[in-house]
């Protein structure tokens, strides 16, 4: 079951037409999570978020807001954070300060940083919101993950320069110096 799920995720990410089309068909047909088989629910969400319309994004976002179950909520968030649409990415970044639970902020940041289409917007968000990020997360044990997640996805010389420009002046923050 796990292997099949992984293969379906890879097929959607690789934009395998038959798999994406089936995911889109199932996404359009469901109205509540229980309408989908639990073993492929996250893949259907992923397909809807990655390849769907504004209406599909809103459907997932509404489900995210209405879902109480933490595991289902995480599956919805994981899918939402794969969107390619810049305005959807901006919406998600805006939610971090107002709607995302404290314990989930670092996960949202990491997922957005690993989303190629969201990376630059997320990096800019981090720089713009640094005072808030620091005051909110510095006491959290995941604070030192912030530079790590950026370092893991940056791969160009200009990104290295931007990384150094941002983190060098603040590397004396004890929790960051370990990272």
Plain-language structure description:
By secondary structure, the chain is mostly helical. It contains twelve helices and no strands. The protein has helices at 2-13, 17-29, 41-51, 54-66, 70-80, 86-98, 105-114, 119-128, 130-137, 145-153, 157-167, 174-177. It is globular and about 50 Å long. The mean pLDDT is 92.
Q: Give the H and E element order.
A: HHHHHHHHHHHH
Distance between the termini: 36 Å
Which class of secondary structure composition applies to the elements?
A: mainly alpha
**Major sheet details:** none
Number of H- or I-type helical stretches: 12
Give the mean pLDDT: 92
Percent helix range: 55-70%
Q: State Rg.
A: 17 Å
Strand count: 0
Fraction in beta strands: under 5%
**Unreliably modeled segments:** none
Topology at a glance:
Blueprint: H1 2-13, H2 17-29, H3 41-51, H4 54-66, H5 70-80, H6 86-98, H7 105-114, H8 119-128, H9 130-137, H10 145-153, H11 157-167, H12 174-177
Helix pairs in contact: 2-3, 3-5, 4-5, 6-7, 7-8, 7-10
Keyword list:
mainly alpha; 70% helix; 179 residues; single chain; globular
Write a compact overview of the structure shown.
The protein has 179 residues and is an all-alpha fold. The protein is built from twelve helices and no strands. Helix 3 runs parallel beside helix 5, helix 6 packs antiparallel against helix 7 and helix 7 packs across helix 8.
